[in-house]
Amino acid sequence: MAVATRRTQGLTDKQLHYCPGCTHGIIHRLVAEAIEELGVLEKTVGVCPVGCAVFAYEYFNCDMIEAAHGRAPAVATGVKRVLPESVVFTYQGDGDLAAIGTAETVHVASRGEKITTVFVNNAVYGMTGGQMAPTTLLGQKTTTTPFGRQADVAGFPLRVAELVATIEGAAYITRVAVNTPKNILRAKKAILKAFNVQIQGLGFSLVEVLSTCPTNWGLSPPEALRWLKEKMIPAYPLGEFKAPEGGV
Amino acid sequence: MARVAAVTGNEAVAEALRQINPDVCAAYPITPQTELMQRFSSFVANGKVDTEIILVESEHSAMSACVGAAAAGGRVATATCGPGLALMWEMLYVASGMRLPIVMAVVNRSLSAPLNIHGDHSDAMGARDSGWIQLWSENAQEAYDNTIQAFRIAEHLDIRLPVMVCMDGFIISHSIARIDYLEDDPVKNFVADYKSVYPLLDLDNPKSFGPLILTDKYHEYKRAQHEVMTRVKDVVLTVASDFEKMSGRKYELFETYRLDDAEIGIVILNSAAGTAKDVVDSFRERGVKAGLLKPRLFRPFPYEEYAQALQRLKAVAVLDRSDSFGGYGPVFMEICSALYPLAQRPAAVNKIYGLGGRDFLPQHAAEVFAELEEIARTGRVKTTKEYIGVKE
Questions:
Q1: Is there a contact between B58 and A132 if contact means CB atoms under 8 Å apart?
Q2: Residue B392: inside a domain, yes or no?
Q3: Which pLDDT tens digit goes with each residue over B258-303?
Q4: Using beta carbons and an 8 Å cutoff, which residues of A are at the interface with B?
Q5: Are the C-beta atoms of residues B243 and B145 closer than 8 Å to each other?
Q6: CB neighbourhood size of B367 (10 A)
Q7: Residues in A touching B123 (Cβ below 8 Å)
Q8: Average per-residue pLDDT in chain A?
Q9: H or E, element range at B52
Q10: Residue range B97-138, pLDDT digits in tens
């Protein structure tokens, strides 16, 4: 019998540790499938964050290096400069990328490094237990904003894709979500495109993926998907903020 | 009246901060410190304190915000651990160089790589030269008591220096233990109202903090920092004496356990000292004169007092929960420096234990005491520095 489908070779057999209803697993699969489909698995190096995805080196079936908190884009830059023919990606959450690592993210784009960043935004510090992140929505309850985030004391949500899209060295900047099958397919296309931008040497590419955190949001997995749609997408609109002229 | 509670080390320190009610706390979550500032931020949210809490984007910014707040004239506290303390590095020297009395809880954690979240002393030992006072705590009670005393020490007008209060990550920060809390009013009276010294925007006495000072005066500035450190010891003892009057709990520069007539002894910091004390007892029951010294004030290091406490030993083992790779463990180096001026000094060995949260078990202390018995008998040290509790 012909094989109709099979699991991606871009992931190992290791069982994921993520909480029920967390969409990290979907995003891992999309990234792994993209790497496999582009035929670059053997020349891909991933850079792991600190945060829920810290064990990404256990899951991606390619060489991985663990970065200090927030430093993944700088580490990726070093890897890419020594191995310019390789495909280098960072996989980072919002605690890692949009807080402690904001400077690295801005400057990797400013330098136009030919790497790809997969940015998983769930509007909360997940691994440390649900504290407010820079991406936390106004009014959103977290363990450090138990009555909801108030702008006067805790500021406003940081829109990373829009921010990075203003930088000349950024070639492809987009925001997607993984809350519905349709959005998952769009996310896959965006991740493929981001890697293609890198492979064609066009500059820095970043895919922001709106993700759920049922555990720290205090919602069931279906409720979390609804919350993503009803609360997150209005605050973080989906779409391409920057793309190479003439397509990829 | 004391309140008895069963709490984690993190919770105990957060409670101390609630009672003290600092003007500003800037913090960033990092395991295993996260719970501490999270609990404190709930005090802020519930109106239990008046503190301005700043949820910054990194520890480098956390300490920077603390520097700004302290220079502006506020009473300031924060907390961190491991890589967070490492990221604060640059700002630690700024805080001490500006003589800003910031108090920081350090929940001791290992440093990468490999990545590890568990308790060892690499973080604070790495910061030992930064000009901060360091108080170390065996358990939640000591962490709570040291935090309260730290404000008085830091803000003492003879010194005005930042203080870090260390406790072991997870082993103490996350274990629930019995603790005697003090009532709020005595604590508030003990730390008293904050006295701002040289605040910003004092228009009659305008000033700048941290200006460029090159070869003409930098050297003298640093000598002044050295000299103020020599006054810390007396302040720590004075504050401890006042604290004892309030609480009934006695603190000194270090704690000795059955050391007065001991022939062999262990020097060990923090939670592992509790384990080692039990082993001292079991050796004493067998007629072996074993003892223990647990440092409390590690920076500045009171060399003469340590030498006096240890001089009668025949052999001493210094146990370090961090390593200075290519050198000896940091506590060992200090103890040897303390002992060197003595005409007759104990033989000394250095054991590295418990890195990255590896358990320190009674059998480890027993093996060390057994080796010390042999050294005391023969006068011969086979290996000066050695890792113990290693899986071969």
A1: no
A2: no
A3: 999 999 999 999 999 999 999 999 999 999 999 999 999 999 999 9
A4: 50, 54, 66, 68-70, 95, 99-100, 102, 125, 127-129, 131-132, 134, 143-147, 153-154
A5: yes
A6: 16
A7: none
A8: 97
A9: strand B52-55
A10: 999 999 999 999 999 999 999 999 999 999 999 999 999 999
Per CB-CB distance under 8 Å, the chain A contacts of B45 are 144-147
User: What string of H, E and C letters represents the secondary structure of A145-167?
Assistant: CCCCECHHHHCCCCCHHHHHHCC
Specify the DSSP class assigned to residue B263: S
Q: Which two tokens stand for residue B163?
A: 């203080």
- Looking up residue A182, the CATH number of its domain turns out to be 3.40.50.970
Q: Which of B49, B55, B88 to mutate to test the interface with A (most CBs of A within 10 A)?
A: B55
Of B28, B34, B113, Cβ closest to residue A129: B34
Q: Looking at the 3D structure of chain A, how many domains does it have?
A: 1
pLDDT for the residue A248: 83
What pTM was estimated for this model as a whole?
A: 0.95
Does B2 have pLDDT greater than 80?
no
Strands (E) in A94-229, as ranges, are 116-121, 170-177, 204-210
First vs last C-alpha separation in chain A? 36
Q: Which of B247, B280, B313 is the last residue in one of the domains?
A: B247
Residue type, A122: N
pLDDT for the residue numbered B1: 54
For residue B205, the enclosing domain spans 3-247
Domain that residue A158 falls in: 24-242
Domain boundary, last residue among B221, B247, B273: B247
What is the separation of C-alpha A196 from the centre of its chain, rounded to a whole number of angstroms? 16
- Could you tell me if B225 and B186 lie in one domain? yes
Q: Does A145 fall in a domain?
A: yes
Residues of B in contact with A147 (CB under 8 A): 45
Q: Which amino acid is at B218?
A: Y
- Please name the residue of chain A whose CA is at the shortest distance from the CA of residue B26: A154
**Each residue of B329-364: pLDDT tens digit?**
999 999 999 999 999 999 999 999 999 999 999 999
Contact map slice: B 81-120 vs A, CB within 8 A: 83, 87, 112-115
Question: Does B212 share its domain with B280?
Answer: no
Element (H, E) at B272: helix B271-285
The string of pLDDT tens digits covering residues A1-29 is: 889 988 999 999 999 999 999 999 999 99
A183-194 pLDDT tens trace: 999 999 999 999
CA distance, residue A215 to nearest chain B CA (Å): 17
Nearest CA in chain B to A129: B34
Is residue B239 located within the same domain as residue B275? no
Residues B312 and B239 in one domain: no
